[in-house]
Amino acid sequence: MISRVIDFCRRMVGGKESEPSAVIPRDEHNISRKDISDNALKVLYRLNKAGYEAYLVGGGVRDLLLGLHPKDFDIVTNAHPDDIKKLFRNCRLVGRRFRLAHILFGRDVIEVATFRGSLTDNPDAARSEEGMLLRDNAYSDSVEEDALRRDFSINALYYNIADYSIVDFAGGMQALEERRIELIGDPATRYREDPVRMLRAVRFATKLDMDIAPDTANPIRELAPLLDDIPAARLFEECLKLFMAGHGLDNFRMLADYGLLQRLFPSLAPYLDDAKARRLMELALDNTDQRVRTDQKSTPAFLFAALLWPVLDIRAQDILLESGLPSNDAYQLAMNEVLDDQCRRIAIPRRFTTTIREIWTLQLRLDKRAGRRAERLFEHPRFRAAFDFLEMRGEVEGKEIKALAQWWQQYQLEDESGRRHLVSGLFEAKGPKRRKPRKRRPRAPQTQA
C-alpha cells in the first residue's frame, strides 16, 4: 500500500524525489475514520465546521499507516489557542514554551496545537547560547510551515478531515516505506533546538523496528552532552517512554551505544563493561518488557532499583571500609548518596524512591528468617518486588543468593505448617547455639567476725 502511495507522490511532483510533498487522496491510502477515536473526530469536525483547517498529525497518522493502533491522536489547526477555547467548553490551555489546547472528554484528552511558524526573526522565539529553544510561541496560518517545524519526516504526515486526504510535506511516506528515521532539516541544528530529539530518534527506531538514517545518527555521540541542560523532570518522563513501553532493553543498548545512557545515568558508566552488572541490568529490562507486553503490573521503581544496585553495592562496601559502620548503616548512607545523585539528573518522584529504598532494604533482610522474621517479611507490602529482584540477583551473583531465592520460592508455595517446618529446618541445619560458659566471679574472701 505505501509503495503505491509513494508512486502517486512522485507522479504529483513530476517524478522528482527531491520534492516529495504531495496530496494523497482517500482511495490511495489505508486510513479509515473507523480507526480514529470518536473524540478526535468530534474535535476535527467542529474545527472544520467553524471554518478552520484541521488535521490529524504525527504519531497517530504514522501508526495508522503502519497498521498499528495509536494510543493518542494529536490535532493541528490554524485556529489560535483562544479561538479553540471559545469553540470548546471542555478546553484547557496549557504550556509555556508553546501554548496548547487540551480538549477533555473524561479521561480522554485530545491535544490541539496551532500551526507552528518559522523561527527566523520571530520575536516570540527565544534560544539559549547552545541553540536550545526556550520559548516557542511562533504561530502560523500555513500548514506547510508547521510541517517544517516537525522533528522527523515520518511525523510530518497530515490527515485532512476536509477531504480525508493525507498531505506529505517532508518525504514521510518514503521514509515509512524504507523504514528510516530521519530528521527534517540540519540534524545538528535540530538536536541543538531540542536535545530530547536524540532520545526520540532511538525510541522510534526500536518501537517501529526502523533504522536511524546516517545523517540523523552521525551527530548524536558528539551532541549527547546537551542532554545535561534538559530539566530533570522532563528526562524522567522520557525515561518512562524509553523503558516502560515494552522496548526497554533495545533502548538501553542503543542509548549506551550512542553515549546517551551515560548522560541519563552518569553513575552507570563504569559498570556498562562489567559483565555481572550489565547482566543484572539487562535481566531487569527484559523482565519489565515481558510484563508490559503481557499487560502485567510493572513499576519504574523496580527497574531503577535494579539499574542502580551495582552502584549502591560498591558504594556501600566503600563506606564500610572507610567508616567501619555496621553493614545496614553503610547501605542506608549509600542509598541516600546514590538516589540523591541520580535524582539530580532524572527527577524520580518520591513515591518511587520510597519503593526503591524498600526493595533495597529487603535485600539485606531476606536472609534473616529465624523465628517470626520470615512471616513478617512475607507480609511486607514490597515482598513480591523484593523477591523478584532477589531471584534476578541469584542468576548473576552466585549460589548463595540463588539458594536464598529458592528457599523463599518454596516458602511461598507452602501452607502455614510447611512454612514453620522450613524455618525450623534452618535452625536444625545450623545446629543449636551453644551458650558460652559464664565466667564465675571470684568470691570475696570471708572474714571472721
Task: Walk me through what this model shows.
It contains 21 helices and twelve strands. It has 449 residues and is α+β, with helices and mostly antiparallel strands. It folds into two domains: 2-178, 2-Layer Sandwich (Beta Polymerase, domain 2); 266-430, Orthogonal Bundle (cca-adding enzyme, domain 2). The strands form three sheets. The protein has an eight-stranded mixed sheet. A two-stranded antiparallel ribbon has the order 7-8. A two-stranded parallel sheet has the order 11-12. Strand 9 and strand 10 (165-168) form a beta hairpin. Helix 8 (196-207) runs parallel beside helix 11, helix 8 (196-207) packs across helix 12 (248-257) and helix 16 (327-345) runs antiparallel to helix 17. The longest helix has 24 residues, at 300-323. It is elongated. The model is unreliable at 1-20 (pLDDT under 50).
The CATH topology annotation of the largest domain reads as Beta Polymerase, domain 2
What is the gyration radius calculated from CA atoms? 29 Å
Taking the alpha carbons of the first and last residues, their distance comes to 118 Å
**Strand content bin:** 5-15%
Into which percent range does the helicity of residues fall? Answer: 40-55%
In total, the number of domains comes to 2
Which structural class is indicated by helix and strand composition?
Answer: alpha+beta
Shape: elongated
The main β sheet shows up as: 8 strands, mixed
CATH superfamily of the largest domain: Beta Polymerase, domain 2
Mean pLDDT across all amino acids: 88
Biggest sheet: strand arrangement: 1-10-9-2-3-6-5-4
CATH A-level architecture of the largest domain: 2-Layer Sandwich
CATH class division of the largest domain? Alpha Beta
* Count of individual beta strands: 12
Parts with pLDDT < 50 across at least 5 consecutive residues: 1-20
Number of helices: 21
